[in-house]
Amino acid sequence: MRALPYALFIAAAAIFPMAPVRVFLETPNERTMGTAFKIFFFHVPMAWIFMLLAVVCGVAAGIELRRRSRRAAAVARASAEVSFLCGAGVLLTGPIWGNATWGEPWTGDARQMTTALLWLVVASYLLVRQYGGPSSRRLAAGLAIFGAVDVPIIYYAVKIWKTLHPTTDVVTTLPPSMRAALWPALCALLLVSLGLVIVRTRQVALEADLDEAWVELDRQAQGVTA
Amino acid sequence: MTGMHSIIAGLVGPWILAAGLVTAEPAAAPAGAAAQPEYAPVVGVSREDKEKAAMLEEAVAHKVARDYEHIVWAYGVLWGLFALYGVYLWRRGARLRADVDELRKAIDARGKA
Lengths: 226, 113
What we know:
Low-confidence stretches of chain B: none
Oligomer: heterodimer
Number of helices of chain B: 2
Structural class of chain B: mainly alpha
Strand content of chain A: under 5%
Helix content of chain B: over 70%
Strand content of chain B: under 5%
C-alpha cells in the first residue's frame, strides 16, 4: 500500500505520452469548432475529476462528522485540495476554449456559474479547515456536503437551463476517432489526481499524529518537571 | 455672319467626322497572326475570386494557428498546476520528515534525561 501512489504516478507517466499524440496528431478537427475543440480532451476529464473529488470530500466529511474519524478527515482535506486544483484547471481551460469558439471567455451560463460556485465552496472549505481552528470542523464538513450536493446540479444544469454548453450525452455520442483521444487524457489525469490525493492524505494524517506526539511530549515534560 | 458660318460648318463638318472615323479604326492585324483581344471575358475563376480565396485561406491558417496556441496554453496550464502542487507536496513532505526527526531527537533526549 505504501507504494500505491508511486505505482499510480508510473502508470500515469506511461499513459501520458499517448494523450497529446492522440489529441494533437490523430484526432480530426470538429466540424464547427475546428482545432479549438481539442481543448475538450482535457477540459472535460478535469471537470469530471473535479466533481468526483468534490463528492469524495463531501462523503468523507460526512463520515468525519458522524464517526469523528481522523482518517476520513484526512481524506476529505486531501480530496478537497486536489479538487480545488482541478477546479482551477477547469475554470482556466473553459474560458480559453470559450474565447476561441464563442468569442468571449465567460458567458455566465448555468453550467459555468454552478461550476464556479462549487470551486468557491471547495475553496471556503479549505480556508475554514486551515484557519478556522478545531471548533470549525463541523462548519467545514457542512460546506463540503453542500459542495457535494452542487455536483448533480452542475451535471444537470444543461438540461434544466438554456446554456451554451453541450448536452450530457456529448461523450456517449462522440465518434470513435474522437473518443479514442479522451480515454488516455482521462486516465493520465485521474491516476495523477488519485496519487496526489493518497500522498496528501498520508501527509495530513502524519501532521495530526505529529501534533499529538508533540503535545504528549510536552505534557510528559511538564509532568516530569512537576 | 451666322448664316455664312452655318454654311461652312454644313459643308466641312461631315468631311471632318468621316476622316475622324477612318483614323479611329484599329490598325489591321498583320497577315498570318491570330487576332488576340486585349480584354477577355472571365473563363473559370476570376482574379477577384482568387484573391478572396487567398485571403480566406490566410484567415483560416491564422485562426488554426491561434487555436493551436489556445490548446497548448490550456494543456500547459493544466499540467503546470499539477506540477506546482507536486512541488508543494514534496516540500511539505520534506518539512514533515524534518519534524519527525526533531521529535525523535526530543524523545531520545528525554529518555537519556
